[in-house]
Amino acid sequence: MKVAYQKIINKLGKDRVKLNESMANHTTFKIGGPADLFYEAKTEEMLVRSVRLVREMGVPYFILGNGSNLLVGDKGFRGIVIKNLVSKVKIIGRLQKPKIVKENEKVPYKAAHPKKYLKVADLDFPDGPLDTVVEVGAGVPLQALITWSLKNNLSGLHWFAGIPASVGGAVVHNAHGFTRLFANFLKSLKVLDKQGNLKEISLSEVNFGYGFSDIPQKYAVIVSVNLLLSSKNVAKAKEIYKKWQKRKLMIQPQKNCPGSIFKNISENLAKKIGAPTPGTGWLIDQCGLKGKRIGKAEISPKHANFIVNLGKAKAKDVVALITLAKKKVKEKFGVDLKEEIVRVGEF
């Protein structure tokens, strides 16, 4: 065993650091080889201490949330995977000047052929003023947070129904729910910077885009976030949440997959190529790839922008399907698909 590994084990605890832990056990895809070391950080102190330690030791590390939006290579991860389980949630207070979610902050999301694809436009309604500040640990599962917020009469996050991310992952990848971006509901973030300092940063210090933020490049680790939610329209939000979740269950696979594989295209590009929707699933479907299998991985018959693990699928099978979808869409539409899924480890 590497000397650095042994020092990490000694300092974090032999009973807390696992060796050669299969990442298939920790991703929603149920795919991935072993991580050399695996550690669960259950408190903010454990998270900060472990990250500072592995940086000091010069050991590669990866911060794992809920394991969605992720494809881990078949050969696993050389270094340590730190699973962020920091799970605090508390209401901080109310704002005197609530934030309004602006129309131009929305993501284009128009469904084509509602009987075949996901119908959503009838569910849209204006968000209430964001007047309540909630502090949330980055390791909190997003769906658990949505349930908590609605029980505590707070709305806003219902648009993200069915997304299997942690809060930290939703921030890093600026998750999109219907026409909303997760950054629309952010006030500030507590991060561990690359010098090992804990600091609170404002949104002006981060670049957010559709399915993107530059947080990993700038700050590396999110510890917690302050969210802005609304105390208004809660009854309507609960209604929409149930309907939105139900429709997703009908159209999108929910098990043994990481979520969407590719980002949607812009509305302008959709118009240019004659597509009735910016949804990437439509493009892949038009190439006849729904239900296409390689090994034990399948482009879902429900929704072509999802790849499902049918049982013991390999990362190489998924990569082969991704490559095929890119090739066919490029040939038919001249469009270069951009991956939403993140690849980690050795392939």
Domains counted in the coordinates: how many?
3
The residue ranges in which pLDDT falls below 50 over 5 or more consecutive positions are none
Indicate the proportion of strand residues.
25-35%
N-to-C terminal Cα separation, in Å? 22 Å
Q: What series of H and E elements makes up the topology? A: HEEHEEEEEHHEEEEEEHEHHHEEEHE
Helix content, binned percent: 25-40%
- Kindly report the average pLDDT value: 92
CATH architecture group name of the largest domain: 2-Layer Sandwich
Major beta sheet summary: 5 strands, antiparallel
Structural class: alpha+beta
Radius of gyration: 20 Å
Largest sheet strand order: 6-7-14-10-11
CATH topology of the largest domain: Uridine Diphospho-n-acetylenolpyruvylglucosamine Reductase, domain 3
Furnish the topology, listing elements before pairings.
Layout: H1 3-12, E1 17-22, E2 34-41, H2 44-57, E3 61-64, E4 70-72, E5 77-84, E6 89-99, E7 130-137, H3 142-151, H4 167-172, E8 176-177, E9 180-181, E10 186-192, E11 198-202, E12 208-209, E13 212-213, H5 215-218, E14 221-230, H6 234-251, H7 267-273, H8 280-286, E15 293-294, E16 297-299, E17 307-309, H9 315-333, E18 342-344
